[in-house]
Write a structure and sequence with these properties.
single chain; 294 residues; alpha/beta; 6-stranded mixed sheet; 4-stranded mixed sheet; 11 helices; 45% helix; 14% strand; globular
């Protein structure tokens, strides 16, 4: 992870928007947890678990998602995160009941700021984050898909930014979507609110792959396992560098990437990979930030 990304992540971890903003909802037998976190063989799965409310990204849901992402994020056993959902809707976006005048301007600010920070967190954490989409992803739900490093969708999935139809233009989703798809495609989605199919989302770059519903989990896990075969610090370094250089002009991007390549070679895992290639064997990763040389 780059120094800038690490600093943003640290600030995010310690910041509090208000006394209650990041309080995780307590589950009871009658109120199951909003998200479910599972982890096995380096793969963490975070599952939205509120299908009755279309897995809306309420403040409580955002808080639960944030906690599930950040828990033991620096543990070298964690290699990749998959975000998925139960029910026919991946996520319908913000809970509109939280956006009425009764809640007030400060509360509204907290909602959008919390959401924006979670989307940024997804891109700043040192492991790849994969969206596994099987259904509808709208507004901030579509923003979440666009914010993930990789997105695999079933053929039945659809994507939309329909806020304009209820008088609330999807301005914050537009930040992520406008960086994932061509500008004119993003503008049509934002101005009309019309959904696009999974195949259209693939064509325009919103998702990485489209597969049949029955093969969705298999394909997503296949990608996740492939990530787990690589060195965690090498992947973390590469992810941070990619995010940084994408925001830069060409010359600055090459300067950034050049410096990162040199830093990568200084890692023990960087040298191990080269030795393994030369010796025609599988690399044995340390998965640590240990340096081979200065």
């Amino acid at each position: 992870m780059s120094q800038a990304a690490a600093l943003r992540l640290t600030r995010f971890c310690v910041r509090r928007l208000s006394p209650s903003c990041w309080t995780r909802a307590v589950s009871t037998p009658s109120t199951p947890p909003l998200t479910i976190r599972e982890q096995e063989d380096g793969i963490r799965r975070i599952i939205f678990n509120n299908p009755k409310k279309r897995n809306a990204l309420s403040l409580a849901m955002l808080s639960s998602l944030r906690e599930d992402i950040l828990t033991d994020i620096d543990n070298k056993d964690l290699r990749v995160i998959i975000i998925s959902a139960r029910g026919p809707v991946f996520s319908s976006g913000h809970d509109l009941k939280e956006l009425t005048s009764a809640q007030g301007r400060d509360y509204h600010t907290s909602v959008f700021q919390a959401c924006s920070e979670v989307m940024t967190l997804i891109q700043d954490v040192p492991v790849p984050v994969i969206a596994m989409v099987n259904g509808i992803a709208t507004a901030a739900g579509c923003q979440l898909v666009a914010s993930c490093d990789i997105a695999v969708a079933s053929e039945k999935s659809t994507f939309a930014t329909p806020g304009v139809n209820v008088g609330l233009f999807c301005s914050t989703p537009g930040v992520a979507i406008g960086r994932a798809v061509p500008r004119k495609v993003a503008m049509e989605m934002l101005f009309t609110g019309q959904p696009i199919t999974a195949q259209e989302a693939l064509l325009h770059g919103l998702v990485s792959k489209v597969v049949s519903e029955e093969h969705l989990e298999e394909e997503t896990l296949s990608i996740a396992r492939r990530v787990c075969e690589s060195s965690r610090p090498v992947v973390a370094l590469g992810k941070a560098a990619f995010q940084r250089q994408m925001a830069q002009g060409r010359d600055a991007a090459y300067a950034t990437a050049t410096a990162v390549m040199v830093d990568n070679l200084a890692l023990c895992d960087g040298q191990e990979g080269i030795r393994a290639f030369i010796e025609k064997r599988r690399p044995v990763w340390t998965n640590s930030n240990e340096k081979a040389h200065d």
